[in-house]
Design goal:
- The complex is a heterodimer of chains A (112) and B (115).
- With 112 residues, chain A is mostly beta strands.
- Chain B is an all-beta fold and 115 residues long.
- Chain B has no helices and 11 strands.
- In chain B, strands 2, 4, 5, 6, 9, 10 and 11 form a 7-stranded mixed beta sheet that branches. Chain B has a 4-stranded antiparallel beta sheet with strand order 1-3-8-7, with no helix packed on it.
- In chain B, strand 4 and strand 5 form a beta hairpin.
- Classes of the chains: A mainly beta (112), B mainly beta (115).
Chain lengths: 112, 115
Amino acid sequence: GQQVMQIPQYQHVQEGEDFTTYCNSSTTLSNIQWYKQRPGGHPVFLIQLVKSGEVKKQKRLTFQFGEAKKNSSLHITATQTTDVGTYFCAGPGKTSYDKVIFGPGTSLSVIP
Amino acid sequence: DTGVSQDPRHKITKRGQNVTFRCDPISEHNRLYWYRQTLGQGPEFLTYFQNEAQLEKSRLLSDRFSAERPKGSFSTLEIQRTEQGDSAMYLCASSFNRAGDVEQYFGPGTRLTVT
């Protein structure tokens, strides 16, 4: 079946260090979405990427969609304690565009 | 409108009992999704509605689970004869079906504990 994988599962960084999480899909995706979930909170939409090779930035966050549209990455520059949480990538289902398949997430801890 | 709301926020039940959760989406949103999330995992798709029509249901969902959205507004998720494996956070999300608009707004979730 369709799978969305993410690495690493956990990442601990010193405040100010950079952080990257990688997302890989077993199938080509029409789009990829990224969500952030704070501890004890619910997922919050960050961004959607649609085009092959697309790069989007949100302040210190840089999102990239691979050329083959099967992988994506999220890079955070100079992490802050407010970046703590789990970052999920998600893509549309293989058989149903409207069904969203979430990856297992990367949990980020920032040591002040 | 303050966002997606879910009720109750927490539910403890004994194995074998039935439970029902409610989700109130953002008012202008016509799509409503139910997910289940366990510790250390991403949200797992259960089902979704376009207005009052249930368009897809996960094959992983047993017949003990049923969801409704009778008037295309709020939705309920019922679990019959609960099992310990049903213990999880049940998340509801809504979105506005518009070309290229995929953003889902999640509610705070209902945490179910089956003892």
